Amino acid sequence: MAQPMHCYRHPKRETYVSCSECGRPICAECMTAAPVGQRCPEHSGKAQGARRVTSGVRRTAFEGTGALVTKSLIAVNIVIYVITAAQGAGINSPGGKLFAKWILYGPAVANGDWWRLITSAFLHANILHIAFNMYFLWFIGSAVENAIGRGRFLLVYLISGLAGSAGALVFSPLSPTVGASGALFGILGVAVVMERQRSYVLGGSALGLVLINLVLSFTISGISIGGHIGGLIGGILCALILSNFGRGHAAYSRVGLWGIAGILGVGLLSIAVAYLKVRGYAT
User: Fold this and answer.
1) Mean pLDDT of the 83-87 span
2) Which of 26, 94, 101, 147 is 20 to 30 A from 122, alpha carbon to alpha carbon?
3) Active site includes 249?
4) pLDDT by residue (tens digit) across 252-268?
5) In terms of Cα–Cα distance, which of 246, 237, 191 is closest to 213?
6) Catalytic pick among 142, 160, 165, 181
7) Is 253 a catalytic site residue?
């Protein structure tokens, strides 16, 4: 007799049934009858049952559709850009007091400006920079947010931003750095892990997008290679924690206090890496 599998949404439940569309193992609660075989919730084309609905009500902080967090992040980035453009030299040359206070710069971080590790992710160098990043945030962020829920998405975005800043400081601590790219690469990292689990949140293109953007990072001047790599590593680590390191699924596994602590631990590790790199630049 064949060995039982475990439902990809409920890892503790044994099953002998796989989705006829994607091949993932599914339990009785998750399966929906199809013309041929059974299908998982993502491929059933139907509502996922009363229990799924009530679970969503109980866990509104970690569920939700409509990409509300992605839209909010785009709005915040645009508002901050308008402020820095007004304080600076115009729409294509932001600057001023806020820009100077928030930009990522190793010596400033070493002298106690630790907030720059996250605030720099909300600054952009010019109109093309913010336009590309916000388009990319909408393109990948809305899909990943709808897959993993608002709370998880926001947490991963911010932690990936910290990891991206740490990476930027490791590679070039004396180069002023701005941009949401570290956080965006973190979201791409989550998508890569999910697609390895056969949840094709970006239609199977996540790894290809990572490779293309890494090639661009190394071939186009002025791009923070360390920020991109750091954010990617941070996002992958967060996704692995969300999926209990492969024993569950990043979108459906219960996070729990240990899971949240693990994700926050990635943020603390990022801060520690940044500290170890910049401590010699303090004045």
Assistant:
1) 97
2) 147
3) no
4) 556 667 778 899 999 99
5) 191
6) 181
7) no
